[in-house]
Design a protein that fits this description.
281 residues, alpha/beta, seven-stranded mixed sheet, two-stranded antiparallel sheet, 44% helix
Length: 281
């Protein structure tokens, strides 16, 4: 039987067998497994689903929207996502020769910026659990003349050695992960001592703006999604996922529990987005 992190080839991208074959369970085991599934629930937006179903549901969202993902980011944020990502790069400490892991890197915006800073002597890996997003990101990078290594992998089981990277980043991806604590622990594991994690994610907006932000999130964004991608439901999920994601202080506590030190966060656009940074010592 192959290990869950065994590499294969998926559309020219390094991938792994996320669903290895298992021996058929006995009737009693099937009942126990069903009971366990009922107990292990997680959120998919505002909906409660079995943990085993969330990854597939999230994959369906990004399979649907990846072709116009960048256009939608520009439309939804008014182009501000580019400034948020530039701020993240400025706080990354990445320089010539750095080893960088871009987790849930999607269409490769951060990977491209990291690669330009790390230079020819550096090493930047683009990873994502979604094959369609990853292939699209790899192609965009190639069009810019950057042929970076890419791996399709689950952030909760990163196929990299411990202590390898100088910097790990995850931008707008952590909230889609089933077990955020496991993903953070994996990011901590693959960082070298002195390395840093950057988490760029939607967070809690300044309270006086919350009613306007909620109206925009739940009424406007799904309509834009319907017009541009013909997929209103996926953008309704994305809006809901923002509201069930940990706020700034909760996110800092989660990073500290994973072992990170000197954890700080920067509120961007009045808390619409927050950049968390923590170090491994």
């Amino acid at each position: 039987m192959r290990s869950p992190c065994d590499f294969g080839t998926t559309n020219g991208v390094l991938g792994y067998d996320a669903y290895p074959s298992q021996d058929r369970a006995s009737p009693a085991e099937s009942v126990r497994n069903a009971d366990q599934t009922m107990q292990n629930q997680t959120h998919f937006g505002f909906e409660q689903v079995a943990e085993s179903d969330k990854a597939q549901r999230v994959a369906g969202v990004f399979d649907s929207v990846f072709r116009r993902y960048d256009l939608m980011n520009d439309l939804m944020s008014g182009g501000l996502h580019r400034l948020w990502k530039a701020f993240t790069i400025d706080r990354s400490g990445v320089r010539e020769g750095s080893r960088v892991l871009d987790v849930a890197g999607g269409t490769g915006d951060l990977s491209l910026a990291f690669a330009r800073r790390a230079g020819k002597s550096g090493r930047v890996w683009l990873t994502d659990i979604n094959g369609a997003m990853l292939s699209h990101g790899r192609d965009r990078l190639a069009d810019q003349g950057f042929f970076l290594p890419a791996a399709q992998c689950d952030a909760e089981r990163l196929p990299f050695p411990a202590g390898y990277f100088d910097c790990v980043s995850v931008a707008f991806g952590l909230r889609n992960m089933t077990h955020k604590d496991r993903a953070l622990a994996e990011m901590f594991r693959v960082l070298r001592p002195g390395g840093r994690l950057l988490v760029l994610e939607f967070s809690r907006v300044w309270k006086p703006l919350a009613p306007f932000y909620d109206f925009y999130s739940f009424k406007i964004i799904p309509r834009i999604g319907k017009l541009v991608t013909r997929d209103e439901a996926s953008y309704r999920y994305l809006a809901e996922s923002i509201h069930v994601h940990p706020d700034q202080e909760e996110m800092r506590a989660m990073m500290e529990q994973a072992g990170f030190e000197n954890v700080e966060y920067f509120n961007l656009t009045m808390g619409v987005v927050a950049l968390h940074r923590g170090f491994k010592f």
